[in-house]
Amino acid sequence: MKVVHSLLLALLAGLFFVAHAFAQVEPFDWQQNWAVEAGFALAIDTTGYQFPSAIAFVPNPGPNPKDPLYFVTEVRGTIKVVTNDRSIYTFAEDFMYVHPRQELPSGQGQVGLAGICLEPEHGYVFATFAYEDEHGTLRNNIMRFQAEPQTFSIKPASQLAFTDVFLPYESGLAHHIGPCQINNGLLYVSVGEAWQPQLTQNLDYMHGKLIRMTLDGKPVPDNPFYQDDDIQKARNYIWAYGLRNPFGLKIVDDRVFVADNGQNIDRFLEIHAGTNYKWNGSDKTIATNAAYVFVPSLAPVQMDYLSATGSFFPPDYTQTFYVGLSAFDADGSKTPGIMMLKYGLEENQMVDIPQYFVKYRGDEYQAVTGVAFGPDGLYFSPLMPNAAGETPILKATYDPAQGYPYTTVQVENGSALFIEKGCAGCHSVGDHWGYGGSAGPNLEEAALVERLQARLNTDTYLAVLAEIDKMDTEPYVSWTAAREELRATEGMDRIRLWVKDHIQEPRFDTMYSAMPNLGITEAEATILTNFLVNPNPPRQTPLTYLRGLMPTRLSGRHILFAYLAGVATVGAIVAGVYLFRKWADPQRRSHNTTTAVPHQM
Prior knowledge:
By secondary structure, this protein is an alpha+beta fold. It is about 25% helix and about 25% strand.
């Protein structure tokens, strides 16, 4: 009975622990993962996808609830169709095979179904993808599905593969075939260089090219390098070359634009027929002829364009490219989201500074892949599931009345703010950043604190403050109270206060400072101070220690597993103690042993 009582007590303790965990963990809110431009709102339009890679809207959807509204591709080879009533159907599957050695978010998983585009007159749905042939070699391909003309359908009537067009050319992980566009009855497709930069200059290979073909997969006679109708001759299809991984493609007013992924930088550029864009393996060539260069690389992928007639966004947000970004770095140097590129079609150049329209705020790996304008806003697909295990299609709409809790101007990540404000141009922090070399001192915490302790805790420094107090010009007058507050503090409080004040106004306590005033707000200065000089950690207790070992966002699965594991462990301990006591009890042991008798001859 004692064992039973002990086990019951363990179960009750486990239930108490689970209840306590539920009470301490806040429910997951998907909104906390995303920020959007002020005045806009984000909403989940549909959910239930697995690694969605691209979105394509029906240009003029039918009026019925079950008429298709948009299509979504999934990396592993499924095409979903969403109807007007937001029902989700599987349009096509099992038409390609690819089995990566490791699944996403591993780089090994960056291969599969890449792009989709629609041709309403015939009801064609084109899907671009990389697959493994019978020998395990990666190849590119395009599948053309036949759906209902104009309104499309939830199932295709037939399908046609363009296998022979790409069969002579090996593809490559991630750098494979990309998105597609249809213009004037012709199909444009971008193709990555499959990690073979030397082939981008060779017109006998599909690698690193923008190609153009008929809707039946045939060469176009007025292509720049066309020779004959041979479908296995690359130069018959090539429209432009010298690209690396052009995973963004959009045609606007018969003009072709590409977002091309480089190594450390990327480029956005207009593509002209027959032109060589010079990629040969180096970043200096990825910048060639670029209208805009992404520094550092943000891995641009699918993109769309909002014309001046896009009435659901304010005018300032029209005539703009919206580019999905897939690069992610936990230190904040690379943030996924959607970038606005305002490229003037008349000016033939960038007419405004690029900025984020949507920005990812989470800590776990994420990428924005599909980007497409629908009838009421901008739709986009995060590649990875969120903490609740959901992978939705999100929609951004202009709705200043509703508002949204997180905007792109809010930066709560200290390292991201450090980079965004240009601090990394002069300073490094430990072994990180420092793009500008040694223009400013290394801000690694231990060294920074040591320098400031040696400076701020001296009579010489107090004398300097006294001299600054006599100044009757700005910025010295406005910072008189700050200097007085600094005198009243000591220890780490003085150091943290100095860092915060110095970030806001580098000359608050000196007449000479090479650091510019960057217009940083007090809230931003606090974030940067916490990044550079950590606040005193909270007192560690057994409970806080255990809590620190738990996932930051607990799901029911986490808690159930922990509870069952705890119960099993306690049960094993109780059973072990019971068996040991039984074995160690001399009276019980005497009843279960026998006396050895010598063997007699």
